[in-house]
Amino acid sequence: MTDFPLTGGCQCGALRYEVASEPLGFAACHCTECQRQSMSAHGLSLYVDAAVFTLIKGTPQIWSRVAALSGKMDCAFCSTCGARVFHRIPGDSVISVKAGGIDNLQELQPVAHIWLHSARAFTALPPDVLRYDEEPEDFTEIFEAWRTRRGGATRQ
Questions:
Q1: Model pLDDT, residue 155
Q2: What kind and span of H or E run contains 150?
Q3: Which sequence spans correspond to the domains of the chain?
Q4: What is the C-alpha separation between 5 and 31, in angstroms, rounded?
Q5: From residue 110, how far is each of 125, 128, 129 by CA, in Å?
Q6: In the predicted model, what is the mean pLDDT of residues 132-154?
């Protein structure tokens, strides 16, 4: 199992954060917004309860954008290097940590791939992941798959 807290940050180190206990879920997002944001084929989203996420260094800049289901999403990024650190729907208790910035990501594997209708043609998916053509209206199935894969782990 993973040791907590998980730590991570932006590319230049001006922003640092920690996740104190077990995340809620982990997905790869293939939407065009994540492709642009990550400058890659997909983004990685580690969903955590806001109560277990702490910025331990720096203050991010916030850019707000339109989101498919929620209407608005706040995107936190480093004003020095520009790296995206997390997303949050205003008023929601879940934060989507951009998982590429986590210091030790080797043990964590996504349980779902979302927005597959815009996935790049060369994308290969593991056989044991949940698949969604778009964003699911409810992340309960993703969070349950995460708990199952992690051996029933729950938030501390």
A1: 46
A2: none
A3: 6-148
A4: 29
A5: 10, 10, 8
A6: 87
**Tokens encoding 114:** 């979302």
CA 137 and chain centroid, separation: 16
Q: Which helix (H) or strand (E) holds 45?
A: strand 43-49
CATH architecture of 6-148: Beta Complex (2.170)
What pLDDT is attached to residue 24?
A: 96
Instruction: Give one word for 128, left, alpha or beta, with left for phi > 0 and alpha for psi -120 to 50.
Output: alpha
- How far apart, in whole angstroms, are the C-alpha atoms of residue 28 and residue 86? 14
User: What is the DSSP annotation of 84-130?
Assistant: EEEEE-TT-SEEEEEGGGBS--TT---SEEE-GGG--TT----TTSE
User: In this predicted structure, what is the pLDDT of residue 119?
Assistant: 84
User: Alpha-carbon distance 103 to 97, whole Å?
Assistant: 12
The pLDDT tens digits for 101-125 are 999 887 789 999 989 888 888 988 9
